[in-house]
Specification:
By secondary structure, this protein is an alpha/beta fold. It has 2 domains: 1-34, no CATH class; 36-168, TIM Barrel (Alpha-Beta Barrel). Helices cover 38% and strands 14% of the residues. The chain has helices at 2-6, 43-52, 70-86, 123-136, 150-168, and strands at residues 12-13, 18-19, 37-39, 55-57, 95-103, 140-144. Strand 5 (95-103), helix 4 and strand 6 form a beta-alpha-beta unit. Helix 2 crosses helix 3 and helix 3 runs parallel beside helix 4. The chain starts with a helix and ends with a helix.
Length: 169
């Protein structure tokens, strides 16, 4: 993609793609190109981010690489940074987002002895989660509000805007 976005006459003769004599237009307005966000939580995904990405967005529901708490995500960001340093890349050149795949939920509470799931519980707890994610290195947060009905989804979005967002400013 970077070649297509930046070269007037891109040529690729690679293992998975081969092209030449083509026109790719219009070119992106953002220079040199739009940022490449790469997902995934595994060590292979982290190496891919370091090699080709401008940003990393792990998801919250990978059973093999759980990032369902701020502490676990912080450890994942530390792994990303170590991978970058090993490869000779400045870790601060990689932006970090977090994709939460369960709905924001005020009614959800942790079972006895278990840690509360991120972005559930009270508005204050959610604001504390956001602060903890920021401290872990997250700069962008993608939340899920979708529920069984449009009305309930909109209600959750409104409540989040009114109750949680003012606590994070």
């Amino acid at each position: 993609m970077k070649l297509l976005w930046t070269e007037e006459a891109p040529v690729v003769h690679g293992t998975h793609a081969r092209f030449e004599n083509l026109i790719f237009a219009p070119k992106p307005v953002r220079k040199p190109h739009p940022p490449l966000w790469i997902g995934g939580e595994s060590p292979v995904a982290l190496r891919r981010v370091v090699r080709a990405g401008d940003g990393w967005y792990p998801a919250s529901n990978n059973p093999h690489h759980r990032f369902d708490t701020a502490a676990r995500l912080k450890a994942g960001v530390a792994d990303l940074y170590r991978t970058a340093e090993t490869a000779g890349r400045d870790p601060s050149s990689i932006d970090v987002a977090f994709l939460v795949l369960w709905p924001v939920d005020w009614s959800a509470h942790a079972p006895a002895g278990a840690e509360r799931r991120l972005l559930t519980g009270s508005s204050e707890a959610m604001a504390a989660d956001i602060a903890a994610l920021e401290a872990a290195g997250v700069r962008h947060l993608c939340l899920t509000f979708q529920t069984a009905t449009v009305a309930e989804t909109i209600e959750r979005m409104q409540r989040f805007a009114e109750e949680v967002m003012p606590l994070t400013a």
